[in-house]
TrEMBL record:
It is found in: Membrane. Residues 26-71 form the Wall-associated receptor kinase galacturonan-binding domain. It comes from Forsythia ovata. This is RING-type E3 ubiquitin transferase. Residues 1-22 form the signal peptide. Its EC number is 2.3.2.27.
């Protein structure tokens, strides 16, 4: 009976530790002091995958700007070949309540599709 009690207490401690460590690694963060808060469903590329949705990965630039890489798929008409087009933009605000992202497309290395 004592072995069961000790095993049960150990199991509860391990589960609690896993939950706390998972919560800690997914804490809201930001790029620099004035950048937008990055939290679920977004995540930084160096955070664990379960901290955000696929395709919602952000990164910090050397100057502490929050960067997002947009991908557009374009179908070429000759052989229906799909070509990916990429553009990197800076995010200056994320409104989680309204579900809006405010971007600065002047940082894009190419023109954004219309």
């Amino acid at each position: 009976m004592k072995i069961f009690q000790v095993s049960f207490i150990f199991l509860v401690l391990v589960i609690t530790w896993l939950e706390v460590s998972q919560d800690y690694e997914c804490q809201p963060t930001r790029c620099g002091d004035s950048g937008p808060i990055i939290k679920f469903p977004f995540r930084l590329k160096d955070q664990q995958e379960h901290c955000g949705y696929l395709g919602f990965e952000l990164s910090c630039t050397e100057s502490n700007n929050t960067e997002f890489e947009l991908q557009f798929l374009v179908t070429a008409s000759t052989n229906n070949v799909v070509l990916p087009l990429f553009a990197k933009v800076w995010i200056w605000e994320i409104d989680y309540k309204a579900q809006l992202i405010y971007i600065n497309n002047f940082t894009a290395k190419s023109c954004l599709p219309g």
